[in-house]
User: Fold these one by one.
Assistant:
Number 1:
Amino acid sequence: MEKYNLTAHELIEQISKKEASAQEVADSLKKRILDVDPKVKAYVRIDQPHQTAIQENNAPTAVLKGIPVSIKDNICTDGLNTECCSKILAGFKPPYDATVIKKLKAAGATIFGLKTNMDEFAFGSSTENSYFGPTHNPWDLECVPGGSSGGCAAAVAADEAILALGSDTGGSIRQPAAFCGVVGLKPTYGRVSRYGLIAFASSLDQIGPLAKDTRDAALLMNVIAGFDPLDSTSVNIEVPDYTKALVNDVKGLRIAVPKEYFVEGIDPEIKGTIEEAINKLKSLGAECKDVSLPNTQYAVPVYYIIATAEASSNLARFDAVQYGYRTADRVKNLIEMYNRTRGEGFGEEAKRRVILGTFALSHGYYDAYYLRALKVRTLIKEDFDRVFKDFDCILTPTSPTAAFKIGEKVKDPLKMYLSDIYTISVNLAGIPAISLPCGLTKKGLPVGLQILAKPFAEEMLFRMAHTYEQNTEWHKLKPKL
Amino acid sequence: MSIINKETVQYVAYLARIELKEKELDVLSGQLKDILDFIDKLKEIDITNIAPTSHILPINNILREDVPKSSLPVEKALANSPEQEGNFFVVPKVIE
């Protein structure tokens, strides 16, 4: 068995017993990338598989000693290209590390790979909107890996990464995790510091782990979670040891199954697979009941107002003055420089979203669109509050379909937006959710089971997911490359 | 009847400081119309007496102690800029 085949917890054990060294692990992974990434294209620059120095860190806090972690292109790494897969950030080398990167380094991890591919500024559900070109799904190279953290998910699935850090604004960790058959967690809003995450929608964004199994996701959460004075929306609540939640027991836990997630638009094959997963958890002693989240149908329209409004404001910083691309044309004045640079530097989807968001915030439309969306967001959040009074978690499909073909939806933005229909409400309500593999379609594409819990109840997600994993084999399946 | 047409998109793009080519303007106008028609679904909900949620956490006005700390050195702060001179960012003429 090659080192790259192993999980982080297996490698940690080998490294501690001196059966493997950090250098061997990094070399093995590098070999794997050079071997399969020309097909998968999970990384932006495979010609330079970069890694930070392997540290001789023997402190007891070095819980990820020698473990390579791959990073999405929108999380700042000191001195290493961080470009959000956009032309407008071409060549940007941040002068500092994001808080999560600092924490990884302190835990002895190696920052690995330059860097994982994504939809430009995380705008998308397929990783087709990358300035560097699309990533391919390791299970079927003609399919998308999902998005926007498609590079992370494909890298983990193809054994080109041991662990990866992505970001999730409307499903960008969970949907690609589902499409690529890996585990992906979106933590509670405020659980992980956003300092150094290049902002898309500040009230929705969270950084989270993508991993080969739930134990690895829990290990990574142990390192990245926690209060950060540099992020005023991070919350000062003690971080538990998430690995303690990995018990094989769901007896008596109350699971809600929302009927709105199983209606029109869902692929019958996905529906059947999720129902089987629910039956499995029932057979293990969980209690399941149908519930209603009546405002689910409004989540996508609410999201595309709030997220684009926040994005239009966040992306105003790309002004060709302090960093990034500047038009090569001779311009008359500052305004022309802004207009030309942004016209040339932003991709199609970025333009669409910034313009939509600017419209929603503009004079005369603010009340009709933005304020209305914020009010409906309240209703969506209240739906969850109501259900969580009586239930420990909610089970849904992660996505209404398995991975779709490259090119299938990219010309129809609305169709693409609807592929996030089951993941978006979670971000609007700020709650945590995990996606884990629960089956394969007839065509051999992975299906993701999504589990949702109350704010700061990540332990419940880990317990439920781990129990499912202990009693099934889906997470052990690997794509043939 | 949608409220968005080519002129509106052109104007909003200017507010957003994005120059669009004629063809982009055509495509975008059509797409934004479809998206806004879809978003109009929100008009069917009664939102009387519903408070807006701009943020899900019950926190506001987070302040820190006013303690001086070191900041980025000038060279590092300037290193990524497309054009710089001395300790300054260089931009095209601002005043006519």
Number 2:
Amino acid sequence: MMGRLALPRDWLASTGDLAKFCARVLRDVYGARVFRFFGEALRQAGILILSSTLVIWGLVFIIGLQCGIEGAYFNRSVGAPAYAGVFSAWCDLRELVPYGFGYMMAAKVGTGFVAELGSMRISDEIDALEVMGIDSMTFLCATRLLAAWMVLPFLYIAAVGAGFFASYLAVVQQIGEVSSGGFFLIFWMFQNPPDLLYSVIKGMVMATAIVLVGCYYGYNAGGGPVGVGTATAKSMVLNIVLVHLIGMLGTQVFWGANPRAPIGG
Amino acid sequence: MPFGIGRERKHEDELPPGGGEDMTWPEREQEGGAESPPPVEGGAGDAEGPSGNAGEGQRPTGDGEQPTSEQPTADDEAAPEAAEEEERSRVAVVSEPERGAGDEEEWKWHTGLKRPTGVPDAIEFIDVHKSFGRNRILRGLNMGLPEGKISMILGPSGTGKSVCIKHMVGLLYPDEGDVLVHGESVPNLADDELFEMRKKFGVLFQDGALFGSMNLYDNVAFPLRQHTDKSEEEVAEIVNRRLREVGLADSGDKMPNELSGGMRKRAGFARALVLDPDIVLFDEPDSGLDPVRTALLCELIKEVHEENGGCYVVITHDIMSARRVAEHIAVLWKGRIVESGPADELFNSDNPFVRQFLSGEATGPLGME
């Protein structure tokens, strides 16, 4: 009986540890403790911009192309090619841009944090920070979260633009069964500014979860290089699950009750 | 949580009533500094035997416990002047705890003898116990590390030396007992107080623990930039001086992965010294170094100590390093002190374990187990 309970008990304990860690990092950011190390936060923001922007935009651009192509072929098959913009508006903004953003954040930024902080842990760098009288959790984790919050909304909105542009290219320029004006008429009809806000919120919740999970697994890594590898894999699994969970809940909360579709009056 | 988050604070009400703990650090420093305590008569001789403990006051071990034959008894009350004199001359508060008869064999060589050093202790371990799972590392450690000297904690591998360092700086907390730094109880400090206290320390980790994302100059400048308001010119002056001291004046722009093991250690040393700490801890500075570089590093430690003073604590199991550098030695085995005291006295100790370990002989109490 005890053996059977051991696994769920471990999971519960890990979840509790993770929750405590997240609460501590969030407190450091909201409580402005992190601003003691604002320079480090700016450095992390710079690293995020330089190392992750292009790869996220690139992925979202490809997803935008895919969305446009899918929408154009489907609408042609039902005899309404002019309505291809609906797909671009909904598929891009509400679902695939957040998911693409979340996937690349998890793969690039989340695992990067685990590897970086994990190797700092096993080479005593975090202990060195602590014995210098520096709160390592604030310095390493809260600064990364603040940097993500400073940079990612803009990066995300630009990614949405990249997705829209790719869909436009696929539907209007490549397949070409609808004019530019016709595409945009439907495209803008099926979205409004609150949709963009909700989409940004979805993406930022994903980003926050990914940064916190990455920091947690990296900061608490142990067991040498193998331990860091294991922590990286675990963080990726949890992040992918969280990305889908947040995506699903976001859609339900923001568009479940009112899809805001101008259909049937 | 092994890494300093989720710290436990369960010792606030459990502090052992130490004999000298009511004496604050400055008081003790003043007393120790004002007059050197007279040598304990027959100190070594008196202490010979399984639980001899010459030259220091006995810390009460708790209600109901019977004093051992070596501990002060009612007879002492008959000689208040002698007791008072002893109290005055005492500079450390630690003592070896009582041992049960069943432990006789295991602690056969642990006399716990602490030879007087003439100066107050900067760091004190009081009956510290620490376990990791079933693995009991520290098992009632009582140790004092004197102010102003280079102390070495020597002992076989896996005996808890590095764990000691982590207790000193509050990276680990004792399961039982207390660790005092300049009279302050480390496990009972609030987070902010702990971070403040840590500024007294410089620590050289085994591999230097340099930040991989910064070059050597920035690594050494890091504590100054974080903790002081010095201008970049002042920072540069201090950093360059420290780098010159450790022979890395021309390597400031190198990244840690471009340095050899010895250079990384020296760079770590420069970083540890940059805030002029009162206490510098070295975790096996000789590990992975060839004998010549080990000797050079030891010389460097001595030179810097002569220049800056303070309490230097070196963890090692290299006897040659101990002979070169140590002014005070504590021999640790099975999580307790076997003997401690001035280096020259320890090297002439009659204790078979200490003699075997400090001469590196194969035969003696210490085997492969």
